[in-house]
Amino acid sequence: MIDVIPILFSALFTLATAWSLGMLLLRGLALSFYVWEQRLCAFVVGSACLSEIMFALSATHLVHRGVLLVLGLAIIGYAAYSGAFRSQGKAFAPLAPLWRWTFMAVFAAFTWYSFFNALAPEHSSDGMAYHLSEVLIYRQAHGFPLITNDVYANLSQGIELLFLFAFDFGRHSAATLVHYSFLIALAFLVLCYGRRIGRPAVGVAGAIVTYTCPVLLRDATVAYIDVALAAVLFALFYLLQIWDESRDSKLLIPIGVLAGFGYAVKYTAFLAVPYAVGFVAWKVWRAHKPLLRPVITVALLAAVMILPWMAKNRIEVANPLSPLANHIFPNPYVHISFEEEWRSYLSTYGIPSGWQIPLELTVKGGQLGGFLGPLFLLTPLALLALRFREGRQLLFAGLLFVCTYFSNIGTRFLIPMVPFVSLALALAVANLPWLLFVMLAANMVLCWPDMYLTYCTPGAWRVEGIPVEAALRIQPEDEYLSQDPDYKIVRMMGRVVPPGNVIFAIGQGGRSYLPRELLTGYQSAANEVKQDILWTGVVAGYQPVRTLRFDFPPRAFRKLRVVLKGREPKDQWSMAELRVYDGLRELPRDPAWRLTAHPNPWDVQLAFDNSPVTRWRSWQPASPGMYVEVDFPSPQRATSVVVESSYDKVNGEIALEGMGTDGQWTTVSDHPAASLHPIRTNLRRAATAELKARGIGYVWIRPGDPDADDFFRYPAAWGLVLAGQEGGGRLYRIQ
Amino acid sequence: MSRAEHPFPWLAITLHWHNMFLTRIACVLSLLCLAACDRLPESYPPPEQRKPVAGLDPVADSRAMLVSMDSSAADLLIVKDIYGGSGIPWRWTKQEPTVRVPLLSTENLKFSTDFALWDDGFKVTGPLEISFLVNGKLLDKVRYDTPGDKHFEKPVPADWLAGNNEATVALSIDKLYTAPKDGAKFGVILTRLGLKP
To answer: Which of A2, A191, A305, B94 could form a disulfide with A207 if both were Cys (CB 3.0 to 4.6 A apart)?
Structure first.
């Protein structure tokens, strides 16, 4: 049980540091708040400031335990010394006993459930796979190392940097507790909002519905970031409402900070910036006041929170918005095809009919990763709140913040909307307190975790049980975590794979417990190339079985290029080898040649390396005008060009263009002679050898991976030696 | 509120200048962004040339394409009609013992198998005719008139294998021995079956 102490210390230390920063700022700005709303807003705003400080420390590789300790103590100490914690401002009128006791009872009951889940050893899927695995990497590197082979490292990570602060002292569970604290802050902020607008019952109801929402409860008790985002966005909304009342221009500072911090937490919250800027501009314009100064203040402060993330991505992966917008910022690190496939999947989750979505979101939760609870089936009722000014504000903000929902229809992506809809629903029936109470009572019963299975899909993402012994470390952490197959796999990998070796896997794994580098097939352009190489070893459709030969009278060329004439929206153009001949002799590939391609020039060498398992690919739909080009250092005589490629139809729709000594491009031939050459050698071993040449020492194959059976049956043919197995999967060492 | 009255005078001064401060931050960040705007190279020299895929290694590759019944991996390679077993170098078969093997090449490969005809069973079945099949195609058919250890080996035409990553290799036995006690059927005692260079 003593093991819990550092976890609780580090979580509380992080929260205290963030809160102190926020109190220093809000008190420093001498803003007028109610006591509790000041404390809560201070925590959220302070978190944004601490995250920004952590960014600076990470960028300068100063993330050391001593630095964090001194920093935290200095901030807390200064806040205490300067009296920032002394309560100022008004207190809310007391809650009516019925609502007070209702809130306290529900809050206590659900906190009992959720706190121990948050404190238990962290083993969430995405938490282990990337939220905390990136944190582990940053901790080991004392800051941001250059990561170009993991798209998740390119996402903004405002909350992960708070995790980093906590992780250095209390590891995984401390990070989870930091996230959980945002749920508590959010619930109390919702409560405060109801009290501020003079409808305490609405505040209580909204807070309870938010706090008990099954997907929030689950999300907040693991090392995810969605509930923190919801808290940030609601705090932003709250501050804007206060500003609208007071028009205190100093409020625009925390407003700008939170608007930008939304983006720093998650890209989908970029709309917080136009919302805040638009809100301020609209209100100022309607009041016939000068517009520029308040708008610029909010926009600039938001930019201060956003631009570091953009600059980091621009510097590291040549795309400020990575892993998105690769069409606008083409780069060697994320393929356009990956982005398109990712979007395509996330916009449907494989659900055949859109009519299933409402039930999946609210009740079932099996396919979309969690459920909001049956009460949210009544969401249309919230429109009745439009009759109140507050209702209109709530619904507008809630709707705006989920505008991006259809780009990812997972239930988690609706979490930012939950506090707004909860309040709007409560507001809609606020004039009928008995109905509000009945609705609330029904929600409390239905959202009690033991009731979930009466309506949700058995595999739905939800909290299950209260792991008190595991949370208090009475049950050893390793024993508890070993119930998770992903954890057992990475533990096995950690035992088997010597330090310094790199593991390649098709699917993602629990990297936050793996002290080795694990590259996942789809998570970067370089990894996708490795995956392509591996599959070329066995997938006939990838192998270079077709030869396309352009023969022409002897000519001298300065440049030659093979140009695609066809279009195939569902296929990519690929080329395994491009060879130039003078008579029967293949021209040796001179180091002075310059090779390029459009698109994806960064992989062009794969078409000139003499390997049958590597190929240049467009990594975006094939379209006319794409080319692969050779630039000779001096005019080069040639009589034929041979292209080796897989048997995809589009690969045959090519022409040869040449630049003669006159500097003019002309079409040399657009009718290559095609012939088929079945592969007569084993490419499996060539594929693993190619991976080994790229620094991969081990390959992890799971039963569901494509062609997994071929690896399991013929490891010797792949040049692989079984190094370990777990959960049906096998870890092979490349010989 | 004057600066002197402010609870945090340093912040009051900062606030006074916050617009200028923000402008400076924006300028610095813009410069940083511009400084980062170096272009990635878009043309490259030819890379190190890979050697052609190596030919077959008679020892290593025969191990990969020849299924030994004592191998721990044999169960994954057996398609049908071979009884389970472990720790012994042979297994009983049924009518058409079939294994799946990877193709490390499609050329210059030989069908290879080692098996035995059980004395006591042979007394019941009499001479056996065994067909040797690759990818379902009949490679040869041999009549065995005596019991004991047997070895069969014969080149496989390359075009039977071309374009495939794996092949099925099988024996087809014309008569089976039926155990009088339980009626179980037995073909041959198989030690190895597959392809070899």
So the answer is: A191
- B98 closest CA partner among B52, B25, B167, B29: B167
Phi/psi at A135 (5° precision): -60, -45
Residue with token string 């005589």: A637
Angle at the Cα of A497 from the Cα atoms of A492 and A503, rounded to 5 degrees: 95
**Predicted confidence (pLDDT) per residue in A492-505, tens digit:** 999 999 999 999 99
Residue A464 zone, left/alpha/beta (φ > 0; ψ -120 to 50; rest): beta
The tokens for A713 are 């049956």
Nearest to A611 among B23, B40, B50 (CB): B50
Residue A90 CA to residue A37 CA, distance in Å, equals 10
ipTM confidence: 0.85
- State the pLDDT at residue A140: 94
Q: Which residues of A touch B31 (CB under 8 A)?
A: none
| Residue B81, SS3 per DSSP | strand
- Residues of chain A in contact with residue B25, where contact means CB-CB under 8 angstroms, are 300, 304
Nearest to B33, CA basis, from A307, A55, A144, A155: A307
Give the best residue of B11, B39, B44, B99 to mutate against chain A (max A CB count within 10 A).
B44
> In chain B, how long is the greatest CA-to-CA distance?
116
| Chain A: residue whose CA lies nearest to B36 | A315
Is residue A595 within 8 Å of residue B44, measured between CB atoms? Answer: yes
Q: Name the pLDDT band for A37 (thresholds 50, 70, 90).
A: very high
Peptide bond into A703 cis (omega under 30): no
Using the beta-carbon criterion (under 8 Å), do B106 and A683 form an inter-chain contact?
A: no
At B73, is the pLDDT very low, low, confident or very high (cuts 50, 70, 90)?
confident
**pLDDT classification of A422: cutoffs 50, 70, 90:** very high
Q: What percent of chain A has pLDDT over 90?
A: 93
Which residues of chain B from 51 to 110 reach within 8 Å of chain A, CB to CB? 51-55, 60-61, 63-65, 73, 76-77, 100-107
Residues B172, B92 contacting (CB under 8 angstroms):
no
The beta-carbon neighbor of A250 closest among B15, B63, B103 is B15
Decide: A404 and A268 in contact? Cβ < 8 Å: yes
Q: B64 is written with which tokens?
A: 């990969």
Contact B7 A300 (CB under 8 A): no
